Amino acid sequence: MKGEEMYKTIVKTASYLKKKIKNFNPEYLIIMGSGLKNAIPDMEVIKTIKYSDIPNFPLTTVKGHIGELIYGRYAGKNIAVMRGRFHYYEGHPITFISFPIRLFNYLGAKKLVVTAAVGSLKKDIKPGDIVLLKSHINLMDTNPLIGNYYEKFGEMFVDMSEPYKLSTVKDIKNLIKGKKIALKEGVYVAVSGPCYETPAEANMYRLMGGDVIGMSVVPEVISARQLNMDVLGVCWISNYVPGIENKNISHDDVLKLGDLAGENIKYIVETAISKGAF
Question: Which CATH number fits the domain that encloses residue 93?
Answer without folding.
Answer: 3.40.50.1580
